[in-house]
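Supplementary Text 2. Reproducibility record for the structural model of the 104-residue chain.

All settings were left at their defaults, and a single model was retained for analysis rather than an ensemble. We include the record here because the model underlies the residue-level annotations in Supplementary Table 4.
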Amino acid sequence: MDAGLFDKEGYLRDHTAWDEALANQIATADGITLTPAHWEILHAIRRFYAQYELSPATRPLLKYLGRELGPGKAGSIYVMQLFPGTPAKTIAKIAGLPKPANCI
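Retained model, structure tokens:
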């Protein structure tokens, strides 16, 4: 991966440079193999960003996923199993979006 594309924390500097191939590279570097379940969430968070121009923290993310994908795919356990660690940060990073402001 081109180091110039990313900030010091590994987030893509320009979200418009993102594509699915780059997402796969970022995920692989973080030890995640993307499945259709991952892609649903990644595309949903990109829609959130397009609408609100910010990366959501965990609570707004889960609420949005509930509306977009249904309650079964908006639970914190479900999301954490797909994106370990701090899901909002991991999802934003793989989706090529800025780090959520309210995440440490």
